[in-house]
TrEMBL record:
Belongs to the autoinducer-2 exporter (AI-2E) (TC 2.A.86) family. It is a multi-pass membrane protein. The keyword Lipoprotein does not apply. Signal peptide: none annotated. It comes from the Bacteria. Keywords: Cell membrane, Membrane, Transmembrane, Transmembrane helix, Transport. Its main location: membrane. The chain crosses the membrane at residues 7-24, 30-50, 62-84, 171-192, 232-256, 262-281, 288-307, 327-353. It is found in: Cell membrane. This is AI-2E family transporter.
Length: 372
């Protein structure tokens, strides 16, 4: 009996590693398909909002989902245009921002002149701890000054911005393929239940499978649709803060903050870091960047601890530790897209495991309260 369990564990671990390797190698093929499936779940959740429009309450589900798809396409088009326009105007101003940074670092870490250097005997330094601390501090300041000067002179910010623009072009191709997949899936969704019944044959198995798919669609669609609304609210608040403080390209940073907020825990921190660092380069001082960081962090704390728990409720019942592990695994496999999709993927896995008697205990361990 023990040998059978050990063999099962080894086979399970081997299959898991193999699937992970396939996900990593086949990223370019699998990621658009998976994203299209997630998008389809968002569309079905958004179709409930479309149903509230007068005259569309009794329309077919596929029609409402199609209208929601057009709304998503329009939103992506507007966001892409804003990003490209902001980056195109940002590139010519980069040398000015780089000069501001160089001046700021020169003010913080003034260059040490040779005449100012005083040779001190090692015996005197050993006899005076304060003198030793002073010489050590001077050495650290000199090292940091040389490093920052070398970094700012060698880094090519314009080249980085051009690279970002080219990345946006490839991202546009990815979005087009994803929407194309989602459109074809949407056209075939009406006949999917009949396919499941024919595939399983047994009425009970097909019913359980359809119920599991319906739960996945409901939970993931509700989570992503609500999370998207929360991110839009956060992006608008941060945009207002940056506009009031005079930070340039506020719309660009607001979009980045909203997108990165999909990533649990660390996304909100990284999102605020971008406009804060840019504000340092724009103003050449720390006053405005610190005020902006404090206000935007406060907005994220309020939304993350007050608004988000009430709006999301129990749509995603995952343990925080499981979310961190999933975030680490999926970000390693697929980078930023994997980090964004970590919570939906893990939720789908938990629902699938909860649908089978033998794997239900594993699903209970993945959840936050054990109720699956």
């Amino acid at each position: 009996m023990l040998q059978v369990r050990v063999s099962t564990i080894f086979f399970s671990v081997g299959i898991t590693i193999m699937i992970g390797w396939l996900f990593y190698v086949g990223k370019d093929i699998i990621l658009p398909i998976v994203t299209a499936i997630i998008l389809l779940q968002i569309l079905y959740a958004a179709s409930a909002a479309v149903a509230r429009i007068p005259g569309l309450g009794r329309s077919p589900m596929w029609l409402r989902a199609t209208l929601a798809l057009f709304g998503v396409i329009l939103l992506l088009f507007v966001m892409t245009r804003m990003l490209v326009a902001s980056l195109q105007t940002l590139v010519p101003s980069l040398p000015t921002y780089q000069t501001n940074l160089e001046n700021l670092f020169a003010e913080w870490f003034p260059a040490q002149t040779e005449t100012a250097a005083v040779k001190t005997d090692m015996g005197d330094m050993m006899a005076s701890p304060s003198l030793m601390i002073d010489r050590g501090s001077e050495a650290v300041v000199k090292a940091v000054s040389e490093f920052t000067t070398k970094l700012l002179t060698e880094i090519d910010i314009a080249a980085i911005a051009q690279s970002v623009l080219s990345s946006l072009t490839s991202f546009g191709g990815f979005v087009f393929i994803t929407i194309l997949y989602a459109s074809f899936m949407l056209s075939e969704i009406t006949g999917f239940p009949a396919k499941v019944r024919r595939a399983f044959g047994s009425a009970s198995e097909s019913k359980d499978t359809l119920n599991m798919i319906a739960r996945i669609n409901h939970d993931i669609g509700s989570y992503l649709a609500t999370k998207t609304l929360i991110n839009i609210i956060l992006g608008v608040i941060c945009w207002v803060i940056m506009v009031v403080l005079g930070i340039e390209y506020a719309a660009l940073w607001a979009i980045i903050i909203g997108l990165l907020n999909y990533i649990p825990y660390i996304g909100s921190i990284v999102g605020v870091a971008f406009p804060a660092l840019f504000a340092v380069a724009q103003f050449g001082t720390l006053t405005v960047p610190l005020i902006a960081t404090g206000l935007m962090t406060g907005a994220q704390v309020i939304i993350g601890n007050v608004v988000e728990p009430r709006m999301l409720s129990k749509s995603v019942n995952l343990s925080p530790m499981v979310v961190l592990v999933a975030l680490s695994v999926w970000s390693t496999l697929w980078g930023i897209p994997g980090a964004i999709l970590a919570v939906p993927f893990t939720t789908i896995l938990m629902i699938i495991l909860a649908g089978r008697k033998g794997t239900k205990p594993i699903a209970a361990l993945l959840s936050s309260d054990g109720k699956v």
